[in-house]
Amino acid sequence: MTELTPLQYLTGFGNQHSSEAVLGALPIGRNSPQRAPHGLYAELLSGSAFTAPRADNQRTWLYRRRPSVVVGGYEPLAHPLWKSGALEGECASPDPLRWGPMPLDGDGDFVDGLRSYAVNGEAGSGGMGALAYVATRSMGRRALVNADAEMLLVPQQGRLLVTTELGRLEVAPGSIALLPRGMAFKVDPLDVPARGYVCENHGAAFRLPELGPIGSNGLANARDFEAPVAWHEQQDGDYEIVKRYGGQLWRARQGHTPFNVVAWHGNLVPYRWDTSRFMAINTVSFDHPDPSIFTVLTSPSDTPGWANVDFVIFPPRWMVAEDTFRPPWYHRNVMSEFMGLVLGQYDAKPEGFKPGGASLHNSYVPHGPDTEAFDKASAADLKPHKLDHTLAFMFETRWPLKPTAWALRDAPLETNYASCWQGLKDEFKA
After folding, report:
1. Based on the structure, what is the number of domains in the chain?
2. DSSP helix/strand/coil, 262
3. Spatial separation of the C-alpha atoms in residues 33 and 37, rounded to whole Å
4. Which domain CATH number covers 390?
5. What pLDDT does residue 3 have?
6. Is 55 helix (H, G, I), strand (E, B) or coil?
7. How far apart are CA 89 and CA 188, in angstroms?
8. Could you tell me if residue 327 is inside a domain?
């Protein structure tokens, strides 16, 4: 394993940041001076319309050795297992679906190792895709630009070095990386093989949820999100640029690195975030709040409260509720829920749900604790105890998710998943 020079970070979600790898590379008082310092080119990357309200406007000014227009012509690149949009999924299933862990095999980089579990919406305009990745080698002189969606990476096994136009992020299991739409990046495993999950968000950019009666502090705090400092690759040579555009993959060659930004300023930036910094809020009396209380990031839709995508985690936390069934209750949700397990056990499925696996409960598909979890929780001595050494997450979306052909035919789909509830008996006593 290559030892890294210690990476540095800027803190604060949505902040106006600035960073320069060479002293004086950031122009003062001008975004686009007649001659940028050090012979650099000024380039603007916009994540929102120019006329978006100031509070919602996302953009970053880049000062780079060559502008991104210097690239060869694109040609189609085949990738039959990375899907986008509802049209590329199979029929949305009324059955609960669950998959075992993705096999840690194959010989490919992060792009090669992407597999779509389920999709909805339309590439570039709304909806999401839930994917897994397995990476057994670095991307080398290869970069990915997703012009259709921002990408949320959730490592499950193996640390990653994520190189972006604005700098580098080291992301380990237990942390996440959020990569803006349209920004070049590459993902190199620091531990091989590396495995994890990806949410491809085709809708509004992820933001922190409103806190309402919670007040000004809690859940994921803005100060704990870390953006990279400016860094530019100095090695010469060709690069392959892989571009996700219009739901398809394309590739082109260019004679230089895309990671040549010497300085930048703005608020459209990549982030990493450590899930252990989540301030979990739960009941201290009886019952428990809706799982939305564990929302980290939200991509809103045009209907208030009905998210295009919510990213939710279930971290270690204390359980203290009195006279309460403490695992999640049985429910049918208007939202569709794709879940993954990073480590440990999930309290509603103590044995069947494995780290590296996934489940899908679509809109109004009933689900909840399996028979074992129900029996144990119903008879438990309700003393305070801590759920520890666990981390599950959920991508929740307002539209049904359509499983892909790969997810239904070639992935490790558990065909007997629904049997975990068959032991629930009618014990009604008049």
Report:
1. 1
2. strand
3. 9
4. 2.60.120.10
5. 46
6. helix
7. 29
8. yes
